[in-house]
Every structure is written in C-alpha cells, then in structure tokens.
Amino acid sequence: MDKKLQDKSSNFFKKEGFYVILFICLCIVATVAVITAKNGKTLKTKPPVVENKVNTPKKLAQNIDEPKLDMENALQVKKDKEKESNKSTTSNSKNITTVSKTTDTKFIKPVDGVLGRSYTEDTIYCETLGTWRTKSGIDIKAQLGTKVVASADGVVEKIDNDNTELGKYIVINHQNGIKTIYSNLDENVSVKKDQKITKGQQIGKIGKTAGNYSNEKYGDHLHFEVLKDNAGIDPTKYIKYEASR
Questions:
Q1: What is the pTM of this model?
Q2: CA–CA separation, 175 vs 99, rounded Å?
C-alpha cells in the first residue's frame, strides 16, 4: 500500500513539478519586470533634477556675464562721451581760430597826411596856449574834412568830446589789450558806441574841436594814439608817416 502511495506521489511530482517550476519562474520574471519598471520610472523622474543641475551653471554664467556686459556698455558710453567732448573741443578751437583770423590787427594809416608832431614822453610846447605840456600819441597833418578810417578791426568803445585836449574823439577796442584813439574830429561822426567795425571803415572826418591845439604851426590835423593795456605807446610801431616839411 505504501509503495503504491509512493509511486503515485512520485508520478504527481514528476507531472506537476514542471508546472510548479514554471510558475515559480514566471513569478520571478514578473517580480524582476516589476522591479525593472519601478527602476525605469525612478530614472524617468530623475532627469529633470539632473537638468536643473546642468542649467544652474548656465544661470550662474549668465549672472556673471551680465555685469561684464554692463561694464562694456558703460565703457562704450564713456568713450562716446569722450568723442563728443573731443569733437566739441575741436569745434571750439576751430571757432576761436576763425575769430582770430578774422580779427586783423595789422594797422593801416587812419588818415592820408604827413607827420606833424612825433611821439614823445617829454613835454612839448603848445603854440596855441604858449605853454609846455605833455601829450600822448602823434599829430597827423591833413586838411579839414579829410576822411578818417579805423586802423584795424574792432568795436567802438567810446565816443565823447572833452572840448579841450582831445575835442571830439573815438576809442576803438581791437582786443588783446590794444586800443586806438582818434581825436580832433568833426562833431558828426560816422559810427556809434558798441558798433563793430572793420579795418578801413570810415569813422569820421578831421575837425577843429581840440581847442587847446587848434592853432598849431602845422595846422589842421588828426591826433592819433595807441594804447597797450591802457598805457600809451608810440603809434609809429604800427604805422609809418613821412615827416612834414
């Protein structure tokens, strides 16, 4: 009896053992598949984290680059401003040069005539008053009514009449500290105060308004003075006249 039971059990395991083993194998495969699938999901969720880690240096690089760009822009703006400043400075220099060129300081004779009295720093004898006096500038002998012109470009600084030493006179400012004085003019002058005039432009005519010198031996004349920084200097440094005979 026992032997039959053993034979039946042996046959059962032989027949059914295959299926048991197969089932176990399937279970193992299924388990591996499940584990693999879970691992696969885990891997799929991790890349974004990795991507963030990769992107972080880029952001840092961008943050580092931005100040560099700002510095470059600032330097460019500074360079542009320096260029504009240089252009402005160059432009101003050109304008100054132009003004200097247009202001002609080379003198011409203020009136056609001859030298009646030379320049001196000593006292002179005044025939009209019969006394010795000091007198700046020179006297240029010319006929009454002769045209008087500006010796150089400038601006009329003053027009007045002292009725004694100078009579009717005009002061012209030529810049650079140089001024000229034209006196003993006719009352009717051709210019106005603050008027800009050019070299050779008529400013008046010879008159007889300087009472203290109205009867000098050389007769009617233009009294002409040159000032440098408001101090009288010899006008013959700028203009030349032949002496009267």
A1: 0.59
A2: 11
In the block, tokens 């760009």 appear at: 69
pLDDT digits (tens, 9 = 90+) for 146-161: 999 999 999 999 999 9
Among residues 188, 148, 154, the alpha carbon closest in space to that of 171 is found at 154
Which tens digits make up the pLDDT trace of 96-143?
333 334 444 689 999 999 999 999 989 999 999 899 988 899 999 999
